[in-house]
Write a structure and sequence with these properties.
The complex is a heterodimer. Chain A is of the alpha+beta class. Helix content of chain A is about 45%, strand content about 10%. Chain A folds into 2 domains: about 70 residues; about 80 residues, Glutaredoxin. In chain A, strands 3-2-4-5 form a 4-stranded mixed sheet, covered by helices on one side. In chain A, a hairpin with a 2-residue loop joins β4 and β5. Chain A starts with a strand and ends in a 5-residue tail after the last helix. The model of chain A has no long low-confidence stretch (mean pLDDT about 95). The model of chain B has no long low-confidence stretch (mean pLDDT about 95). Chain B has a 5-stranded mixed sheet, sandwiched between helices. Chain B is an alpha/beta fold. In chain B, α8 crosses α10 and α8 packs across α14. Chain B has 2 domains: about 80 residues, Ubiquitin-like (UB roll), CATH 3.10.20.740; about 350 residues, Rossmann fold (3-Layer(aba) Sandwich), CATH 3.40.50.1780. The longest helix of chain B has 22 residues. The chains are: A alpha+beta, B alpha/beta. Chains A and B meet through β1, α4 and α5 of A and β7 and β18 of B.
């Protein structure tokens, strides 16, 4: 990993290659302003919007192009719950663990998801199909316990319904309509 | 003139300038409020809350370090409630901390331990889960042990604010927060330049140097090895502190005697290598002056700076002097010249260096500083702290030792070499020699006090004969960045720049003793005292110009040939290359 001369051009070219044109244009715009550093989070939002998560290559590219030290960029990326550092599954499962859902047995529901998928919160199943997250109250307490899968609300979920629920989305992924 | 503010601290009237914090105001009336994350030379964090005080009518305890005073403020620094609050805070820190004080490197020298004692923590009330992180030992110089981290943030503040490296940052949140390089990467895959200032400012043992003491004990005990130790200029200015002597006491003689008692076969002076560096570097400067560049020539003695150059400013690699550091020059000569003269097989020579620096451990491991066989020229590097520990561990009564003398072929160092250990020293030594070489006649001017950049950064002009040289001197890499950015942008033409990675130069190095009671790391008073020890040694020497060193002259006459000649180039010079990850 050495070169005899300056490696900046090489690194900047690699960085530009790592990001899509619209984000590069946005960064260029931001760099013209007086406080480009203050736009770090908005740039990371766009990167995650495009790739679904923040990979090392993209984080390094953002650091180089915004001229923000890498440790600061990854410090910010790991601090906020919103940012994902690993690829997300095709379907995002969000189990509500808010008070009402919890009282109605959400933790057993969550447990069944973990068991069926063999993953914990914040992880993605081996086949890349499902990511599991928890949240604190989705605002639909009347439907407790609530599970949201790719934005779709499932009401009054019981643990024993979990396998069928997962199968439905697997079928969806195969292009079948359940 | 700032407005004056009058307030009351523990029923005493105190008048201070507007903008003063409660913590600073209390110090003016003799009260040192306990603190942990606070450091006067770093930005305010206010994260540890150890310095809480009671401010009348506020209804909650305020952090003294980050609260400015106001007119009529009534502060109480001690009460049963405040003492309880501070104790609780430290207890909570302790309960999320390893319980290995007795076997910890910082035992007896730990700010957390001292706080716990002085606040009266005598039991643990909040036993519970605690964080677990593996020790990270990938770097040749710096160990990171996050289990001992109290998240005070001093390490990443010094790394970013003083050194301009910004290798470290808090990652994650809540209970799992950890200080690491970007991506949680290993230190040897980061932009770390191995200066070790994180070790210096850490209140606990979350950062430490890689130990070489075991390797040195083992080598000393091996009858087949000829173990030579060399000591850097700045060691003599700081080693006494490890034995309770006041900072600024020059202790060359006792240091040599102590090392001899440890069992080293020979003790040589890195000053010799420093003089040689000056002779070669002045020659390089003269060559550049007659060839018209490349300018500026930038010194390359500081290993932390060389690492910074390769990762942050590789476009300036052609500007760096190709001279090896004084340590590496001395080591190379020990395994060639010294070996030949004394008739010792170089394979049987084990070279130990005592350095104020942890980056020298990395330098010693660089392939550029190894013989063709792959064997390193420097076999082990001890920091000043490690050398002090070895002397203490042996049971040597340092304070009462008689003075000793360096040995053999490499015992003489001029005053110019001694001042290498402090900011502006390499520049001053270069000017002492170059001024005579440039004009071709002896110069009356010996001391170039104007290049001693005690405030961290200087730009000046020096007139030598008919030439005006544009000079830059910087210590602390954020200061260096100011000069380097001017060079890169073409804003200013310098002829010579001296860069020392650590604040104050080597005397403030990452391997120097932790500060004595009442002083802090980076304390300008401490740095001034250590520097004055070096100027005292310099002033007391007959020989104060590197090219007047008779041992160096003998070396060229009997072994190296011409200054800057092919053999000198082969043995005394090196090369640098751009490294990744590239710093920003």
């Amino acid at each position: 990993m050495e070169s005899a001369t300056d490696n900046l051009n090489e690194i900047m070219a690699e960085s530009r290659k790592a990001l899509p044109a619209d984000i590069l244009a946005y960064i260029e715009e931001v760099m013209k302003g007086s406080e480009p550093h203050s736009q770090l989070i908005s740039v990371l939002h766009k990167v995650q919007g495009h790739f679904g998560y923040l990979a090392k290559e993209q984080l390094d590219a953002v650091a180089q192009l915004l001229r923000i030290p890498q440790a600061k960029v990854t410090g910010v990326a790991t601090f906020y719950h919103f940012f994902r550092l690993k690829p997300r599954g095709k379907f995002m499962i969000n189990v509500c663990l808010g008070t009402a859902c919890y009282v109605k047995g959400a933790s057993e529901v969550a447990g069944r998801f973990k068991e069926e998928l063999g993953i914990d919160f914040g992880e993605t199943s081996g086949d890349g199909m499902f990511s599991l997250e928890s949240s604190r109250c989705l605002g639909t307490c009347g439907l407790a316990p609530v599970v949201m899968i790719e934005g779709e609300i499932h009401a009054k979920v019981k643990p024993e319904q979990v396998p069928a629920l997962l199968d439905r989305y697997r079928a969806l992924a195969r292009g079948e309509h359940a | 003139m700032a407005k004056s503010i009058t307030l009351s601290i523990d029923d005493k009237k105190v008048t201070v300038a507007e903008g003063t914090t409660i913590l600073e105001a209390a110090e003016t009336c003799g009260i040192r409020i306990p603190r942990l994350c606070y450091h006067p030379d770093l930005s305010l964090m206010g994260s540890c809350r150890v310095c809480v005080v009671d401010v009348k009518d506020m209804g909650f305890f305020m952090a003294a370090c980050s609260s400015p005073v106001w007119e009529g403020m009534t502060v109480r620094t001690n009460s049963p409630e405040i003492r309880q609050a501070r104790r609780d805070i430290v207890e909570l820190l302790l309960d999320n901390h390893t319980k290995e004080c007795q076997t910890c490197e910082r035992d007896g020298n730990c700010e957390l331990q001292n706080l716990a004692y002085s606040l009266g923590v005598r039991e643990r009330l909040f036993e519970g889960e605690r964080k677990r992180f593996p020790r990270e030992v990938s770097s040749l110089s710096v160990i990171r042990d996050s289990e001992k981290c109290v998240l005070c943030g001093r390490c990443y503040r010094v790394c970013a604010e003083v050194q301009g490296v910004y290798n470290l940052s808090q990652h994650g949140r809540g209970f799992s927060t950890i200080v690491t390089p970007a991506h949680g990467a290993a230190m040897d895959e980061s932009v770390c330049i191995q200066c070790g200032q994180c070790i210096n400012v850490c209140p606990t043992a979350a950062f430490l140097e890689q130990k070489h003491t075991d390797a040195v004990w083992k080598a000393i005990a091996d009858p087949d090895l000829h173990v030579v130790v060399q000591t850097a200029p700045s060691i003599r200015a700081a080693i006494g502190e490890g034995f309770g002597l006041p900072p600024g006491t020059p202790e060359t003689g006792k240091m040599i005697t102590a090392l001899r008692m440890l069992g080293f076969d020979a003790i040589v002076d890195t000053d010799f290598g420093a003089d040689l560096t000056i002779v070669e570097e002045s020659h390089e400067l003269l060559q550049r002056l007659s060839a018209g560049g490349p300018f500026p020539m930038i010194t390359s003695c500081s290993s932390g700076w060389v690492n910074f150059l390769e990762k942050f400013y590789p476009s300036l690699i052609p500007n760096a002097s190709s001279c090896r550091s004084p340590m590496s020059m001395t080591s190379v000569l020990l395994k060639t010249y010294y070996a030949e003269k004394l008739g010792i097989d170089p394979k049987k020579i084990f070279v130990v260096s005592v350095m104020p620096c942890v980056a020298k451990k990395y330098e010693a491991g660089r392939p550029e500083h190894a013989a063709a066989s792959g064997a390193p020229y420097t076999d082990a590097v001890l920091t000043t702290r490690e050398a002090i520990w070895m002397i203490q561990s042996y049971g040597i009564q340092f304070e009462s030792l008689p003075n000793g003398q360096f040995d053999s072929l490499m015992r003489i160092g001029t005053g110019a070499a001694d001042i290498f250990g402090t900011t502006g020293g390499v520049m001053e030594a270069t000017l002492r020699t170059a001024s005579e070489l440039l004009t071709g006649k002896p110069s009356d001017k010996l001391e170039f006090t104007e290049v001693r950049a005690v405030e961290g950064l200087r730009e000046l002009e020096i007139v030598i004969g008919e030439r005006v040289l544009n000079i830059g001197v910087a210590n602390g890499l954020n200061n260096a960045r100011v000069l380097l950015d001017k060079v890169v942008s073409g804003e200013k033409q310098f002829h010579v720049i001296e860069v020392m990675a650590c604040p104050g130069g080597c005397i403030g190095g990452g391997g120097q003793p932790y500060p004595p009671v009442g002083m802090k790391v980076l304390d300008p008073r401490l740095l001034r005292q250590r520097a004055s020890a070096l100027y005292q040694i310099d002033g007391g020497k007959q020989l104060r110009r590197s090219h007047e060193n008779p041992s160096v002259r003998t070396l060229y006459a009997e072994f190296l040939g011409e200054i800057g000649g092919p053999k000198a180039h082969e043995l005394l010079h090196t090369r640098y290359s751009a490294k990744r990850p590239r710093g920003i």
